[in-house]
Amino acid sequence: EPEVTQTPSHQVTQMGQEVILRCVPISNHLYFYWYRQILGQKVEFLVSFYNNEISEKSEIFDDQFSVERPDGSNFTLKIRSTKLEDSAMYFCASSEMTASTRYGYTFGSGTRLTVV
Amino acid sequence: AQTVTQSQPEMSVQEAETVTLSCTYDTSESDYYLFWYKQPPSRQMILVIRQEAYKQQNATENRFSVNFQKAAKSFSLKISDSQLGDAAMYFCAILYGGSQGNLIFGKGTKLSVKP
What we know:
The structure holds 2 protein chains of 2 kinds. By secondary structure, chain A is mostly beta strands. Chain A is built from no helices and 11 strands.
């Protein structure tokens, strides 16, 4: 079964450093998403991406965050200057059809980001 | 604001028994979709079951079924013949028809399965 692949599985970074989280969505999917889950809290939407541009973003997704699809397979989330509160599990997801698909999204296994 | 409430932080079930996880939501929208996701210790989010709000018939996927009460804004998940592998966090989520990806999750229910 096709999977969404995320790398690395765990990343530790110093406060103020830039990090890039990488995702390989399912190959025929057109819509891509990032979510995050702070330990012990609910999963929160960050951003959706279609046709090389952001479709929707949440209040969390401020100027410190950016997304990119640098080639035909990767989808990245960049945090420019990490803060302690950015420590969380970051999930990438993708979907085949329109973002409002009734089919739900396929999530990756997540990247655990620890900011020290 | 749209919210999803899971009132049971933790639940426990005996293997082979049935358990129901509750979920309520608050919305004024008419076009939306509801989901249950499972998050095992591996942390991956796995889609368990989905329900279109315009469908009256409750969705079923093998041992998993939902009780969708649209007027009451309730969307509970029933797991029949519980297995040890069902132990996980379960998240209820809602997606609005006009949304471009903002899947709104509840806080989750941690399900334990006793052998």
